[in-house]
Amino acid sequence: MALSPRLELKQGQSLVMTPQLQQAIKLLQMSNLELQAFVESELEKNPLLERDEKREAQGPGAEAQERDVASAMKDGASAEERLATLDTDLDNVYQGESRADAANRAGAAPADSGWASLKPSRAVSLDQDELDIGATLSREKTLAEHLTEQLMLTIADPADRLIGQNLIGMVNEAGYLTSDPAQVAEMLGTDIAHVERVLGVLQGFDPAGVFARDLKECLMLQLKELDRLDPAMRTLVEHLDLVAKRDFAGLKSLCKVDADDIRDMIAELRRLNPKPGHVFGADPVQPVVPDVSVRPAPDGTWLIELNNDTLPRVLVNNRYMVQVSRGPMRDQDKTYLSECHANATWLVRSLDQRAKTILKVAREIVRQQDGFLVHGVQQLRPLNLKTVADAIEMHESTVSRVTSNKYMATPRGIFELKYFFTTAIGGAMGGEAHSAESVRHRLREMIERETKANILSDDTLVEMLKAEGIDIARRTVAKYRESLGIPSSVQHRREKNAFGS
Predict the structure, then answer these.
(1) Is 320 helix (H, G, I), strand (E, B) or coil?
(2) Are 288 and 413 within one domain?
(3) Is residue 94 a contact partner of residue 398, using CB atoms and an 8 Å limit?
(4) C-alpha torsion sign, points 392, 394, 397, 403
(5) What CATH code is carried by the domain that includes residue 452?
C-alpha cells in the first residue's frame, strides 16, 4: 500500500484552561495568607493596581475619570474588549446566584453582610503606621547557633572543634543526630573513638538530650542530667515498648519495684522532652484567622459575615491610567497598558466573586449544621459536598475548593469548613443516620465513664451504641477508638488494675 500525504478537515471540541481561568481557580482555593501574598505580588507587577484605601475619599470626579479613560483608550482596545479576548469568563468557575438566594433577596433583607459592606483589608505592609519595626530586627537563636556557642566555650582543640562543627551540622530540628559517627570519622580521616569522645562531650550540652541517636538515648541523657538514671529507671527506658503496651506487671518484674514506683517513674518519663531541639529556633505558631464568622442574631437566626481582615481590597488606578494615556504612546505601550488594565479588572472581579462564593457556601453549611451550633457535636449531621453543591447550584469541585484552607468562627470555636463534612453512620432499625464525628464523641464519653469493675469492650460498646440507635460495626468502633488515642479494653483493664484507679 502506497503512502501519500493528504489534507483532512475535522471538527472537534476541547476545553482549554486559559491563564485567567487557572488564576480564578487558584484564588478560590487559596488560604487567607496565600491570598495576601498573591495580591502583594500582583500589586508589585501591575502599575494599574492599588490598595482600596481611599474609596470614601473619592469625590464626584470618579465618573469623569472613567470617561477620560474611555476617551484616552479609544485608539486601542478597551478593558471590556480585552476581557472578551481572554476566551474565558468567571462563569466558567463561579456560577450565578442560586434561585434560593434570589428569592431571599427579593423578600426579606439578608441578615448577613455581602461584599459591599466589607471594609478595606488590614494586611500588614511596610507603609502601615502600626507595623512594629522592632519585631523585624530580632529573631530567636537557632539550635545550631546555641550549640556552636557552647562548642567554642567548651572545646579548645582545633581538631575536636572541627569534629564538633560537623556533628552540629548533622543535628536535626528535634535535636537528634542524623548521621553515624563512623561516617563522620571516615569523612574527616580520623578514628571512630575520636569522634565518639567528642560526641560524649557534646551530649552534655544544653538542652539536655541533644545529639541523641534515638529516643531511648535522648531520655537517658535527660535523666542523667537530672541524676535520676538509676538501674530501675534505665531498665524502664530500655523497655519503652512495654510502657507503650501498658504491661505494668512485666515492668514491675523487670525493674524489681512495686506499682507505686512504676507509676512515679512513668510520670517522670512523661515530664521529659522527647524533642529537646524544638525549644530553639522554632517557627512561631501562626494563629488561625477565620475567613467567616457566625454569631446568633436577635431573632434566633444566625449572622454569617466574611472576615474583613482576610479580604484584600484592590482597585484599578484610573487616575494613573489617564495621566499615562494623555501623552504620546507607542503601539507597544498601548498594548501593555491595555493588558494591565484588563488583568487588573479581572483580578478585582475574581476577588469579588471569590468572597461571594465563600459566603454562599458558608450560609448553606450553617443551614445544614444548625443543630451543631445550638447543641454541640452530638447534633453534627452527616454532610457531603454534593448536598451543599446541589443546594447552592454549584459544582462539587467548586465547593471542595472553597472549603479548603478556610475556617469558620462559631460560638463553639473555630473550625475548618471541611470539619462539617463527615461520613454517615447508619441508624439502627432504619432510623436517622448519624455523623461519624458525633459517634466518636459519644464513644469517648462512654469510655470516660467506665470504672475499674466495668471495663467496656468493643463488643459492649457496639451493643450500647445500637441501643441508642447507632448501627455500627465492631471494627469501626476499634478504628474510632484508635483514632482517639484510647487503648483497648485489655490494656485499659491492665492499667486500672496496676494503678488501682
Answers:
(1) helix
(2) yes
(3) yes
(4) negative
(5) 1.10.10.60
Number of domains in the chain: 3
SS3 476: helix
pLDDT over 60 (residue 55): no
Residue 379 near residue 372 (C-beta atoms within 8 A) = yes
d(CA 119, CA 53): 9
User: What does the block give as the cell for 353?
Assistant: 466573586
Q: Does one domain contain both 430 and 418?
A: no
Rg (CA), the chain: 32
DSSP β-bridge partners for residue 177: 171
Burial level of 24, CB count in 10 A (0-12/13-18/19+)? buried
39 within a domain of the structure (yes/no):
yes
Grid cell 484584600 in the structure block, residue: 312
Residue 253 lies in a domain: yes
SS3 content of the chain, % helix, strand, coil (to 5): 55, 5, 35
Same domain, 151 and 269: yes
Last residue of a domain, one of 374, 391, 422: 422
Q: Is residue 254 part of a domain?
A: yes
Q: What number of other Cβ atoms are within 10 A of residue 466's Cβ?
A: 14
Among residues 310, 278, 274, the alpha carbon closest in space to that of 33 is found at 310
pLDDT tens digit sequence for 287-323: 788 999 999 999 889 999 999 888 888 888 888 888 8
Who contacts 63 (Cβ-Cβ below 8 Å, separation ≥6)?
Answer: none
| Residue 283: Cβ within 10 Å count | 7
What are the pLDDT digits (tens) for 387-399? 999 999 998 988 9
Q: Give me the count of residues in the chain.
A: 501
Q: Which of 233, 264, 279 is the last residue of a domain?
A: 279
Give CA 167 to chain center in angstroms.
34
Domain for residue 129, yes or no? no
Query: What is the bridge-based pairing of β-strands 407-410 and 413-416?
Result: antiparallel
Range of the domain at 250: 143-279
For 274-285, the pLDDT digits (tens) are 999 888 755 555
Residues 376 and 437 in one domain: no
